[in-house]
Amino acid sequence: MPTRGLFYISLARKCQLMFGLAVALIITAALLVPAYYIETLVHQKNYQRAYQLATLAQPWADSSITDWKTQQAALNRWWEDNAKNLKLPEAKPRLIRLQKTEASKPPTSLWQNISAEFLSHMEWPFKVNLLGSLWQLIPSAARTNLIAQGRRLGHEFIRTLGPRPLRLDDFQKECVERMRRDESINEIPHTDKKAGHYRYIMAVRRLDPVSGRRPLVGMVDIQLTPETDKELLSDDALIGARIVIVLAGVLAGFLAIVVFYLILHKFILAPVRDLKDLVEQIAGGQFSARADLTTGDEFEELSDAFNDMLGQLERARVELETINRSLDTRLGELAETNVALYESNRLKSEFLANVSHELRTPLTSIIGFADLLRDIAQSGPITDQSRIIRFTGNILTSGRMLLDIINDLLDLAKIEAGKVELHRTTFSLRDVCEALHDFMRPLMEKKQLAMNMDIDEELPLMHSDAGKIRQVLFNLLSNAVKYTPESGTVHLQARASNARQVQLIVEDTGPGIAPENQQIIFEKFHQLDASMTREHSGTGLGLPISRELCTMLGGTIRLESELGRGTRFLVDLPVECPETVQRTLPSLT
What we know:
589 residues; Helix Hairpins; 4 domains; 4-stranded antiparallel β-sheet; 13 helices; 56% helix; disordered C terminus
């Protein structure tokens, strides 16, 4: 039995701990919402109280009067007379009449002119001879200090005679700036978070009949605290509500934990303990033990599934034996596939050897006859022209043979790489057949073969790739000429199967092909005679290339043959080939 870790916690403890934390978190979050809402509601109620009191005081602020001291006194008397009936607070609203300009440096006034004139003549007594002489006896530094002190005292004396500037606190200055900048702002509550302190400033504006604007001329400032206004809902009034909320949360959490504890032990932990005991019995070797739970839920389903486990183990053993037998069969199939791959590799190796032989044969002939021509040219004047002509003819024949082999290899490579494209044109199939007939005539006359051509008069015009159809027919006719013995016959026939399809037939009187080889000859790298000493040369790629080209053109190719009676190839092609190339997946063989 595995040892328990240092921080092992049972499932019951985990459930209790996690549920307790979840209940505490949920209840706390649920109670914080109403607590925050109640506190916000209290603040809104208090600000509404300040707004109503400021609205009561606003009519006393007459914008046409420059001095509001009389209005302030009348407001104070009215406030005291109606305080009891209207439940007004002890703190009275303050009417603030703003000056016409609030520049940082006030303009020059009459009092400042007087001050400047007075200070400019401060030194006139010292121009008297006697006093001037006494003044000259005072040291220069002391005289400068006395003059500065006199100027300062003069400024202070003159300043006391002028009007006193209006003193505003920071919040009042901020309100003045905002209300002057935006005429749509008429009330600004104080957003200070100080407990129990509520302040409200309401704008007093005057309508300018000329410009239509409403400039700010004054303010109504009211400040409320629980000490000055008994109608305010103070933070102390929220303590009772907060205590009730906390007690309700604690009680709800306690009840939730108790209920969850009972449910957890009755419906979850007890079945888990029974299943744990059963597992320990089976681990101890008591395979006859079974679970007996009747909870009517997933635990009962789990116990039933556990009881079925032993029976399923036996069935699993049988299935494993079946799988093992299947694996043995698969191994046999893989072995056969391996043999097929080996055979395919062998065929490719033979094909490469044959291709190398086919390439070497014309190259050897070309090099040999070229050496002979060089020797003849070095030996002296050429006297035997027929010999030269024969040698050059052999070189040309070998070169054409080499070119045919290379073309077959290139065509196969292009087909395998998917780089062959269709060039659709409208042409006459009769013209293609007659051109091939004329092209193959010298080869047939060389072997004394007879060629019959039967072209249907009702052939429709083809809308296909004439070059690829010509290549298919050339490959079939070349094979027919190659394998047909002397004095044999090659027959070319073209007919219309229906309005949308034509059929091309190439028939010879050669040796024929055995039924077991009739499909092999269309496969790549396969030749019926793959030996180095075979009678007919070539790579054996003509028929595989022809089959691929027929597939690209949307057609098919097949053969009918009997040993000793010749071979007949039938090519079925659509009158209009598809716009896209029909490609076939390359096969291993």
